Amino acid sequence: MIAKGNALGFAVVQPTFVTEQNGEDGEDGNYALEAYYKVQVTDNIAVTPAVFYLSNPTGQGGLDTFGALVQTTFKF
Question: Is 73 helix (H, G, I), strand (E, B) or coil?
């Protein structure tokens, strides 16, 4: 269960990419996934851990990328 003031999110996106160039098929199909959970610690502090995955971020033959981050928000 998600506690009051907290937020759970998930995103799947696919950026535009080249499908054909100079008569050759493009191989740039890629996508990104992200999941996060914002925890409202106090009225003024929120901590948001997130994980993400990028499929073929540099285009043809690129390596997949997986990462994580933590964002802390302070409101004054």
Answer: strand
Contact indicator for 42, 62 with CB cutoff of 8 Å:
no
In order of 2, 12, 19, 32, the CA distances from 66 in angstroms are: 25, 14, 25, 10
pTM (predicted TM-score): 0.73
- CB crowding 34-56: b at 16 or more within 10 Å, else e: bebebebeeeeebebeeeeebeb
Tokens of residue 64, six digits: 């997949």
Query: What does the chain come to in residues?
Result: 76
Cα 28 off chain centre by = 18
Angle (CA) 41 68 13, round 5° = 105
Dist CA 76 CA 72 (whole Å):
13
- pLDDT single digits (tens) 22-43: 776 666 678 899 999 999 999 9
